[in-house]
């Protein structure tokens, strides 16, 4: 009799626990899909997301890869968003079904920072990229694909337009009424200027300390290091591949220094540039690297920064 009562009591307890568990799951599902499902991340993340994405340009395509030695499409998106503290699933199909954000059905409505999904032969999502530009109505996205063999940019036209399934907006709309890249780019620049923290474009503290011998091996002769024409032309792979980690670091920092960046994080970098007579004459100075990158540098300089970072990451 006692055993029967104990069994009944345990059954009731299990039923109560089961109901509590089901209620908890329902509450979580409700908040995930209705209460906070339409919350978008700050538009100030867009320049940083695009900047991070472009550091992977040229990285070899590798199915299942997730670093600069090789990466696939969903791995690239996951890395970009993790850099911003946004955590999404690992594969493209799950990323397309991610609960947060707004789906975009029309290509013409896409803006920089939007994810774009494409279908495979079975009609289901099997590829993803990120929009980096919508200048003059031409949508350009960055992705890791076996077609390109590496991380590269393509226009969303032709076969990509035919395979397009949808976009997903995780960041606030820059300007709902803007139809040209000038409006969108202007908004991105404003965001870059207002973003107070140092962005991906400057890694003054992150690189390993160079040896004394390495430091002596490279002495800039001009405000732009050993390549004075870095503001007028694109640096080549042949030139960059011959430079050491420290030389690449000095070259990148020199481009920022030319526009008045004030070094304040790494003692060796600070000491190095204080010894450069040309740098002491540059005024005024600022610690906002995002502002320098977004508003002061030319497109050639920005592209050179991206290329240097690719070699720094290898």
Instruction: List low-confidence stretches.
Output: 32-37, 187-228
| Major sheet strand order | 3-8-4-5-6-7
The proportion of strand residues reads 5-15%
CATH fold call of the largest domain: endopeptidase fold (from Nostoc punctiforme)
Count up the helices: 13
Give the number of DSSP strands: 8
Just name the CATH architecture of the largest domain: Alpha-Beta Complex
Q: What is the CATH C level class of the largest domain, in words?
A: Alpha Beta
Shape designation: globular
Portion in helices: 40-55%
Number of domains: 2
Structural class estimated from helices and strands: alpha+beta
The largest pleated sheet is described as: 6 strands, antiparallel
By CATH, the superfamily of the largest domain comes out as endopeptidase domain like (from Nostoc punctiforme)
- Series of secondary-structure elements, N-terminal to C-terminal: HHEEHHEEEEEHEHHHHHHHH
């Amino acid at each position: 009799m006692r055993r029967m009562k104990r069994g009944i009591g345990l059954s009731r307890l299990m039923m109560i626990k089961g109901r509590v568990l089901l209620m908890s799951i329902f509450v979580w599902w409700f908040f995930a899909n209705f209460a906070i499902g339409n919350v978008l991340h700050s538009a100030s993340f867009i320049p940083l997301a695009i900047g991070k994405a472009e550091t992977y340009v040229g990285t070899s395509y590798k199915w299942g890869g997730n670093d600069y030695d090789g990466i696939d499409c969903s791995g690239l998106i996951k890395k970009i968003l993790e850099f911003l503290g946004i955590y999404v699933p690992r594969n493209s199909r799950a990323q397309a079904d991610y609960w947060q954000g707004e789906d975009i059905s029309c290509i013409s409505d896409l803006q920089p920072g939007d994810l774009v999904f494409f279908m495979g032969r079975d009609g289901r999502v099997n590829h993803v990229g990120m929009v980096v530009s919508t200048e003059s109505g031409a949508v350009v996205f960055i992705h890791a694909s076996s077609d390109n063999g590496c991380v590269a940019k393509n226009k969303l036209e032709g076969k990509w337009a035919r395979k397009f399934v949808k976009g997903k907006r995780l960041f606030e709309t820059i300007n709902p009424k803007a139809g040209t890249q000038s409006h969108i780019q202007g908004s991105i620049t404003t965001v870059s200027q207002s973003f107070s923290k140092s962005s991906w474009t400057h890694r003054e503290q992150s690189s390993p300390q160079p040896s004394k011998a390495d430091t002596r091996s490279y002495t800039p002769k001009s405000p732009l290091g050993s390549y004075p024409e870095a503001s007028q032309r694109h640096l080549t792979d042949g030139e960059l591949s011959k430079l050491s980690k420290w030389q690449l670091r000095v070259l990148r920092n020199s481009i920022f220094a030319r526009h008045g960046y004030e070094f304040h994080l790494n003692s060796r970098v600070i000491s190095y540039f204080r010894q450069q007579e040309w740098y002491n004459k540059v005024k005024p100075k600022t610690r906002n690297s995002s502002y320098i990158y977004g508003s002061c540098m030319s497109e050639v300089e920005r592209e050179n920064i991206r290329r240097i970072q690719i070699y720094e990451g290898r």
